[in-house]
UniProtKB/TrEMBL annotation, chains A, B:
GO terms for molecular function: DNA-binding transcription factor activity; transcription cis-regulatory region binding. This is TetR family transcriptional regulator. InterPro entries: Homeodomain-like_sf (IPR009057), HTH-type_TetR-like_transc_reg (IPR050109), HTH_TetR (IPR001647), Tet_transcr_reg_TetR-rel_C_sf (IPR036271), TetR_C (IPR011075). Keywords: DNA-binding, Transcription, Transcription regulation. The keyword Transferase does not apply. It comes from the Bacteria. Residues 19-79 form the HTH tetR-type domain. Residues 42-61 bind DNA. Residues 1-21 are annotated as: Disordered.
Length: 209, 209
């Protein structure tokens, strides 16, 4: 989170101005990385586009990577709210297949959202060749979202719907990674029908029962 | 393939010189893209590094993308031969799990091979943001290798080892895409144990049988 003091400790006007600046900075950072790529995105460029002083950004974040990570974090939280979901949780209705299908359908929508698409690709592309950035991206953004599947699969194990010897951290990759690869590498179309199929195949297996 | 005339139509010395140049060009192209990335790799740079004239490259290929695609194609074929495998086929011993595990173990070796790692990452990263290049990469290199799994899974369906209603093109993603994502995005370690587990989960499913 920004290194600002809590809004309630400051006069309302300052808090409102800060919130407005913060949002302008996120928007500028996402737009810029989408347009010119990560290497050519600079704090100076973000500041100019957001209409704030460079020092405003440096007061809250220590690097362009930090700004971008939080801008994505914020974007994902917004997308979840727009979809009427509680961010950072996967529902447990007792029906594992239905719950996984619902969250993957919401992910399909997010991946196809133009606000998300271009900046995500730019950051992911840089993460492929800049291992340090890639690992931060994974640790801060990707892995926490994958842990939500771990939690849901563990609950399913407790309910006897997933075999007890299964490692949930590997199991989730059977439906999450195919979608990620199709989106990242354009290896195939993505749709609700596709992600529903992945869930069915993963839960029931390819071999006859 | 290069636009050269068939070697047997030319004097042996010319064919030998051409083969040597071709290999020098592939090596130079792979090294260069690994070092400076795809956008800054040029035909001129490849020619200089390979010690050939620029016209030699233009005689055989029409773009740097074409040179690189073939360099990768050649590298993969070499890797398969080094591993004692027939390139462009997945063995059918009658044991589907064993056959899939063997080919994925060979893929793990290839992904960890430094000759392959850096240029592959550079090309994949560019393919994420340059959709046209990405699609060519998929069509020419990735999809043909995925079709080998389709063939093997179809044979398994004929043998009653995979359910008849399964779509093999989606099914293969349950074990191929997790490995691809771990490698591409550094989302987790890759090992033989990991790919063996993916095959077991995919074939038998996560739900109790």
């Amino acid at each position: 989170m920004p290194k600002q003091s809590a809004p309630d400790k400051r006069p309302p006007d300052t808090a409102r101005r800060s919130e407005k600046s913060r949002r302008a900075i996120y928007d500028a950072a996402l737009a810029l990385v989408a347009e010119v790529g990560y290497p050519r995105t600079t704090i100076e460029g973000i500041a100019a586009r957001a209409g704030v002083g460079k020092q405003t950004i440096y007061r809250w974040w220590s690097s362009k990577a930090d700004v971008l990570m939080e801008a994505f974090f914020d974007l994902s939280a917004q997308a979840a709210q727009d979809a009427g979901q509680q961010p950072y949780t996967i529902p447990d209705t007792g029906d594992l297949a239905a719950d996984l299908k619902a969250v993957l359908r919401a992910t399909v929508d997010e991946l196809k959202d133009p606000r998300f698409e271009a900046p995500s690709r730019a950051l992911a592309a840089e993460g492929l060749v800049d291992e340090e950035l890639g690992r931060r991206f994974v640790t801060k953004l990707l892995e926490p979202s994958l842990q939500l599947y771990v939690d849901r699969l563990r609950a399913a194990q407790d309910a006897g719907q997933v075999r007890p010897e299964i490692d949930p951290r590997i199991a989730l990759e059977l439906f999450v990674s195919p979608l990620a690869q199709r989106w990242l590498q354009h290896t195939g179309p993505i749709s609700y029908e596709y992600t529903d199929t992945l869930v069915d195949y993963a839960l029931h297996g390819l071999a006859p029962r």
